[in-house]
User: Fold this.
Amino acid sequence: MSDMLFPMFGFPWILTGLFVDSWLISGSLGQATCKLLSFLQGISPTVSIQSLVPIAVDRFVAVVFPLSYRVNSSKVCLSLIIASWIVGIAIQLLYTLPFKLVKYPDRIVNRPLWSEVFGASFKNQYFVAFSLVFVFIPLVLITILYIIIYLKLKSQRIPGEKSQVKVGQQRERRERNVLRMAIAIVIGFAICWLSITISGTLFVFASDITTSSCGFTAFRFSASLMAFANSAINPCICFIFSANYRQGLQHLYSRMRAGTKIRQS
Assistant:
C-alpha cells in the first residue's frame, strides 16, 4: 500500500508541473489538496523503510534463533504494521504543515514555507534527523542483520537421518529464497533512496553551488526518477522471488473475474 501511494499521488503533481506549471485548484480546496498530496506521497518512503526493518529482524530470529521463533505471529505483525503507519503519519504531518499555495501574477505554486512556519533552521534539522532515523541507520542495521543471516545459512550443516536431512534442506532452501528476495528489496531501496537523500543533502547544505549547476539539476531529476521507480521495483522483486506472491496474484485475478461474471449475469 505504501508503494502504491507514492506514484498515485506523486505523478499528478509532477505532470501538472511539467505541462501546466501551475496549481490547478485555488481557494480553500486548493490549500487542502496541496497539503493532502504532499502528505500522501511523502508517507510512502517512511512506511516502507519501517517495514524493511522488522522483516529483517524476523528473518534474523528465524534463521539465527530458530528454536525461539514462533510461526503464529499474526498479532505481532498486525501491531507492527499499524505502528509503522502511525509513526509515518505523525512524521509526515509535521512535514506537510509548511506547504501552502503561493500566488504569482501568472501562476499558483505549491511550496513549503519552512521559515515562516517553523523558523529558518528547522528545515535543515528536520532533513538531517529524517535522513538519519529513516534512511541511514535502518539501512546499516538491515545490512548487518542480513550479513549475519547469510553467514549463518552458509555455515549450517544438517545432521541426522535422511528424512530429517531432507526436511532441513527444504527449510534451508526456503530460507535462502526468502533471504534473496529481502536482500534484493533492500538493495533496490538503498539504490533508489540514497540518491535522492544525497541530492537533498547537497541542496540543503550547498544550495549556493547546486542551484546554479546544470549537472546537479540533472542528478536531482535522475534521483527523483529513481525514487519513484522504487515503488514499481518492489512488486517486481516479490513476484520474481516468491511463488506465494504469484499464487496470490493469480487468486486475486480469479476472484475478480468471478465477480465480473456474477455482475454480468
About this structure: The first helix runs from residue 2 to 19. The beta strands are 99-103, 108-112. The radius of gyration is 23 Å.
